[in-house]
Amino acid sequence: MAHGARVDRDLTGGLGEPAGSWRDSASRYALLPLRIFLGVTFIYAGLDKLTDPAFLADSGPGSIGELMKSVRNGSAIPAMVDLALESPRSFGYAIAIGEIAVGIGTLLGLLARLAAFGGALISLSLWLTVSWQSHPYYYGNDLAYLMAWTPLIFAGAQVFSMDTKLRSRRNRYGRPLYG
Questions:
Q1: Which of 25, 61, 142, 146 could form a disulfide bond with 131, CB atoms 3.0-4.6 angstroms apart?
Q2: First-last CA distance in the chain
Q3: Which whole-number Å values give the CA distances from 157 to 19, 32, 35, 94, in the listed order?
Q4: What is the pLDDT of residue 174?
Q5: Tens-binned pLDDT, residue by residue, of the chain (179 aa)
Q6: For residue 137, what pLDDT is reported?
Q7: What letter does residue 52 receive in the DSSP assignment?
Q8: Torsion angle of C-alpha atoms 66, 68, 74, 76, degrees rounded to 10
Q9: Contact of 89 with 64, CB cutoff 8 Å
Q10: Longest pairwise C-alpha distance within the chain
Q11: What does the radius of gyration of the chain's CA atoms come to, in whole angstroms?
Q12: φ and ψ at 20, to 5 degrees?
């Protein structure tokens, strides 16, 4: 008589519902609205900056230079603002291009965790500089964006994702997933 380990299969999807149930689907797609919102918002923000000649000026009304000067003394890290003030136009381009790259990566699910980390860094830097003066703190939106990026850093993009497609293609052809 052969003895073996008993293997129990969980046919409930781990939620007490049959596998493939609406709860299982809802869990799988839960982060998709957040990905769409953050991706579209960051692309829009980046394009808005790139197409606004006043924003990319070193000084003047509506410029990144004037914005940085106005928040310098009230920011959490004035040295960070001073660094941006060394070349406001370059800083403006870096933020705008970074936002577009993060947005595209998030929407496509391409290098999704890296894109989410980049979005979190942008949001953190804006919170510590521009939004830091908001009182009460929840009036500043950059902290909320920072928190919104957190689940995407941990989970990545599971559905409608280039990362998932590339991973399945690598697995199908027997190549190692990493390395």
A1: 142
A2: 43
A3: 21, 8, 8, 25
A4: 64
A5: 455 554 444 444 444 555 567 777 788 889 999 999 999 999 999 999 999 989 998 889 989 999 999 999 989 999 999 999 999 999 999 999 999 999 999 999 999 999 999 999 999 999 999 888 888 878 888 999 999 999 999 999 989 999 888 888 877 776 655 55
A6: 79
A7: -
A8: 180
A9: yes
A10: 86
A11: 22
A12: 85, 10
117: Cβ contacts below 8 Å, ≥ 6 apart: 149, 153
d(CA 14, CA 18): 9
Distance separating alpha carbons of residues 144 and 138, to the nearest angstrom: 8
Tokens 């496509």 correspond to what residue?
108
**pTM (predicted TM-score):** 0.80
Q: Under 8 Å CB-to-CB from 138, ≥6 apart: which residues?
A: 144
How far apart CA 60 and CA 54 sit, in angstroms, is 7
The count of C-alpha atoms lying within 13 angstroms of the C-alpha of 152, restricted to the half-sphere facing its C-beta, is: 35
* Nearest CA among 53, 154, 60, 152 for reference residue 105: 152
C-alpha distance from residue 30 to each of 76, 114, 154, 158 (Å): 34, 19, 14, 10
Tokens for 16?
């007490």
Q: Which two tokens stand for residue 79?
A: 């040295």
Neighbours of 52 (CB within 10 A): 15
Structure tokens at 8: 């129990």
Token representation of residue 107: 């929407």
